């Protein structure tokens, strides 16, 4: 009887501990979800006419023929942060995630601009590009063969982006890719944006999906 009581008490203790733990590892580490898997609440579209919706728990982006680049952007701005997400993209489509970006009337009539973490199957995934900036690539060295092979065609790919001060580091499927000091973009704060790249007439439609988007705000 005593052993049974001890076992019962042990089970109860484990259950109480489990009840006090965070629901997910992300929450435990201080992350918050940017996408609830059901709605696009907290997001707003800038530029272009690509379509965004929620499908099967993902943010589903689809090209529109003849449209310029489109961006689904957070309503909140971030400066120092760690961003996690997963993405899956058609081989024919180039995409990306904007960080510290802006859309202001005085800049090309609201053209989204800022650093973009590349999503592509051509070996540049994870490197950082200056979207709508005169800088071109912020990641000047893109020659690492391990980084070039990190992104998997036709599969879900896991990204990690760490932006602190002028330092921007990225990982794709846990492989280090970008590690740069951003002296070019002058973008210290801004929104997160999910890009559906523009396509010409007679092409597409192409698709890109994101899921498990979470962020740890480190600015405080």
Give keywords.
Jelly Rolls, 12% helix, six-stranded antiparallel β-sheet, 14 strands, disordered N terminus, 220 residues, single chain, mainly beta, 3 helices, globular, eight-stranded antiparallel β-sheet
Main sheet: strands, sense, barrel: 8 strands, antiparallel
User: Radius of gyration in whole Å, from Cα?
Assistant: 20 Å
- H/E series: HHEEEEEEEEEHEEEEE
Helix content: 10-25%
- Figure out the total of helices: 3
Q: Percent of residues in beta strands?
A: 35-45%
The pLDDT mean sits at 90
CATH C-level class: Mainly Beta
Cα(first) to Cα(last) distance is 54 Å
In terms of per-residue confidence, which ranges show pLDDT below 50 for 5 or more consecutive residues? 2-23
Structural class: mainly beta
Q: What is the CATH superfamily?
A: Exo-inulinase, domain 1
CATH topology name, in short, is Jelly Rolls
In the CATH hierarchy, the architecture is Sandwich
Shape: globular
Number of strands: 14
Compute the number of structural domains.
1
Description of the molecule:
The chain has a single domain, classed as Exo-inulinase, domain 1 (Jelly Rolls, Sandwich). Helices cover 12% and strands 39% of the residues. It is built from three helices and 14 strands. Strands 1, 3, 4, 6, 10, 11, 12 and 14 form an eight-stranded antiparallel β-sheet that branches. Strands 2-5-13-7-8-9 form a six-stranded antiparallel β-sheet, with no helix packed on it. Strand 8 and strand 9 form a beta hairpin. The termini are far apart. The N terminus is likely disordered.
């Amino acid at each position: 009887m005593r052993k049974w009581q001890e076992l019962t008490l042990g089970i109860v203790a484990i259950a109480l501990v489990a009840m006090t733990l965070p629901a997910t590892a992300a929450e435990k580490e201080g992350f918050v979800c940017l996408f609830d898997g059901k709605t696009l609440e907290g997001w707003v579209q800038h530029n272009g006419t690509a379509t965004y919706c929620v499908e099967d728990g993902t943010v589903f982006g689809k090209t529109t023929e003849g449209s310029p680049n489109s961006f689904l952007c957070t309503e909140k701005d971030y400066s120092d942060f760690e961003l996690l997400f997963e993405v899956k993209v058609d081989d024919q489509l180039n995409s990306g995630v904007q960080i510290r970006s802006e859309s202001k009337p005085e800049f090309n009539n609201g053209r989204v601009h800022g650093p973009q973490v590349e999503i592509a199957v051509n070996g540049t995934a994870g490197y950082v590009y200056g979207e709508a900036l005169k800088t071109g690539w912020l990641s000047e060295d893109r020659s690492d063969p391990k980084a070039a092979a990190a992104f998997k065609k036709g599969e879900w790919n896991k990204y990690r982006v760490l932006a602190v001060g002028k330092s921007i580091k990225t990982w794709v499927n846990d492989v280090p890719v970008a590690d740069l000091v951003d002296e070019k973009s002058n973008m210290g704060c801004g929104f997160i944006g999910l890009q559906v790249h523009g396509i010409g007439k007679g092409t597409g439609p192409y698709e890109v999906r994101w899921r498990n988007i979470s962020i740890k705000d480190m600015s405080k």
